[in-house]
TrEMBL record:
SUPFAM superfamilies: Diaminopimelate epimerase-like
Keyword Isomerase attached: yes
Superkingdom of the source species: Bacteria
Organism of derivation: Streptacidiphilus pinicola
Family classification: Belongs to the PrpF family.
Pfam families on file: PrpF
Protein name: 3-methylitaconate isomerase
Record bears the keyword Isomerase: yes
Length: 339
């Protein structure tokens, strides 16, 4: 085995104004607005005030429609990580409504791409690994660069479970919700009258959408979370073959065009635990261990995972999803640091 040399990836010092840029991960509902976290307040209330001011400037900055996914990135204060990242979900109902309670893997990869484009990270090269600490929920993600060019970057995202993470601890509310990367309510499609891939992906299906949103809000109430927030996420799942599932999920404001990266991670983690909806539908007894094929409305996604077993006391080690392509879209003049 050949030893691998990892090059440190350190963010450069911020300018007084801070940078702002747009980047997009393929499969995401839209672009991500990436902001220099060091040029923004650290206090949550003051941060929301600053983000509201920036949001109101966006129409004059030439952004392509409403941008609901935001990412704040800065050098990490922790010696094990290269960057600290905070995801911000801008909610469509009000300019000052933001949900900071979860993660977004697509926006993380977009943030790394934009930071490199802005010169805050060294130019990305195949083989680079950028270690990110997610401040929203403590996730630890290694963003591995598989391909890099001026036009686009392809990543594998490795979500590393902290040592001692028992599969049973991922469950919330008696097992109704699985929390890995983001909390998800996975619903057996048959319960909703949807039994196969074709039926799941057929058109807009407003009744199915309304039912899933109702289940999501009911689950949020059970957890004591805001009904008009972004979490928990919800997705309908149907079996395709052993080790192969089809999934259709909601995002803020509509159907997700694909599946959130965190959704693929959470689905794989849930599949590893005996008795969950995904594990049962997966026909796990006959499926190849550690690999999950996921059909989404747009494309197929493959997740790999490692666990010491499939019981609640067994440990989850990691979940990885590859083939995630990003593109930097350029700088945006929104006056970061001028608040």
């Amino acid at each position: 085995m050949t030893a691998t040399t990892l090059t440190p990836t350190l963010l450069t010092a911020p300018t007084s104004a801070g940078f702002a840029a747009l980047a997009r991960a393929m499969g995401a509902p839209g672009p991500t607005l990436v902001l220099d976290a060091d040029s923004l307040p650290h206090d949550r209330e003051e941060l929301v005030t600053a983000l509201t001011r920036i949001r109101r400037r966006l129409p004059d900055a030439g952004t392509p429609g409403e941008v609901l996914k935001w990412a704040l990135i800065a050098p990490s204060a922790h010696p094990l990580f290269d960057v600290d990242y905070r995801f911000v979900q801008a909610m469509p109902d009000a300019d000052d409504h933001f949900d900071l309670n979860g993660n977004c893997g697509h926006s993380l990869l977009a943030a790394v791409t934009a930071a490199a484009q802005a010169g805050r990270l060294p130019a990305l090269r195949a083989g680079d690994r950028i270690r990110a600490r997610v401040l929203n929920n403590g996730d630890q993600v290694v963003c591995q660069v598989d391909h890099a060019s001026p036009r686009h970057t392809v990543f594998t995202a490795h979500f590393i479970a902290p040592p001692g993470t028992r599969l049973g601890t991922l469950l919330r509310d008696g097992g109704r919700v699985v929390r890995m990367a983001n909390p998800y309510l996975f619903v057996d499609g048959a319960r909703l009258g949807v039994r196969d891939r074709e039926a799941l992906f057929r058109g807009e299906q407003p009744d199915l959408y309304a039912t899933l949103e109702r289940l999501r809000r009911r689950q949020a109430a059970r957890l004591g979370w805001p009904l008009n927030g972004a979490f928990p996420k919800v997705a309908a799942v149907v079996p395709v073959a052993p080790g192969h599932l089809a999934v259709r999920a909601l995002t803020v404001g509509g159907w997700h065009p694909e599946l959130a990266l965190t959704g693929a991670v959470c689905l794989a983690a849930a599949s590893a635990l005996r008795g969950t909806v995904p594990n049962r539908l997966l026909a796990a007894d006959t499926a190849a261990p550690g690999r999950l094929v996921i059909d989404t409305p747009a494309r197929q996604v493959v997740a790999s995972y490692a666990a010491t077993g499939d019981g609640p006391d067994d440990e989850l080690l990691w979940v990885s999803v590859g083939g995630k392509e990003t593109q930097a879209l350029g700088a945006v003049a929104v006056g970061v640091g001028d608040e």
